[in-house]
Amino acid sequence: MRDYSKISPKVWRSPRFRGQADDSRLLYVYLLTCEHQSSAGCFRLPDAYAAENLNWPIERVQAARAPLVAGEMVSHDPETFEYFIPRWFRHNPTTNPKHLQGVMRLISELDSDPIREAAEAELEESLESKAQTSPNVVSVREKLPGNDRLTGSNYLSGNGRG
Fold first, then answer.
1. What is the distance between the alpha carbons of residues 145 and 152, in angstroms, rounded to a whole number?
2. What residues does 42 pair with on adjacent strands?
3. Of residues 51, 1, 3, the one with CA closest to residue 27
4. Which DSSP letter does residue 135 get?
């Protein structure tokens, strides 16, 4: 659990956000700020837990989530109940090597391959963008020599996107 969460006020001007129904917008803000959210933008959250927090029936959570997934505002794996917020690292980049190490650990602990690979890909993009402006930033691939689960994924092994 984190005590702090950064959400840009620009979210209210986003056509993708503004195009969502009220329930979907509330669920999105909840997913950005709930106590399960992590510094990696990914977390496990069963529908029943979200429903309890929002004081909604589970079906309402599921109905509000569907357009967010379809609009690529949220990635969700219904088998593992895991989420990733796309574009997370554009708004919440890692700030130092220790933070990066913690983010990589959180991503490596995900059970869902699609969610983990989406988070890995966006983290790598964020680090590559930083590397263009700062020569001290090292690739995720270079930072993870001993983490077989993360380095063995399709993305970081070079078999996936990129």
1. 10
2. 84
3. 51
4. T
Return phi, psi of residue 95, to 5°. -105, -20
> Is the whole-model pTM more than 0.90?
no
Q: Mapping DSSP to helix (H, G, I), strand (E, B) and coil, where does residue 43 land?
A: strand
83 - beta bridge partners?
43, 76
Q: 136: exposed, middle or buried (C-beta count within 10 Å: 0-12, 13-18, 19+)?
A: exposed
- pLDDT tens for 119-154 read 999 999 989 887 766 655 555 545 544 455 555 565
Phi-psi map region of 82: left, alpha, beta (phi>0 left; psi -120 to 50 alpha): beta
Q: Which of 38, 51, 54, 161 is nearest to 109 (CA)?
A: 38
User: Which residues neighbour 35 within 8 Å (Cβ) at sequence distance 6 or greater?
Assistant: 1, 2
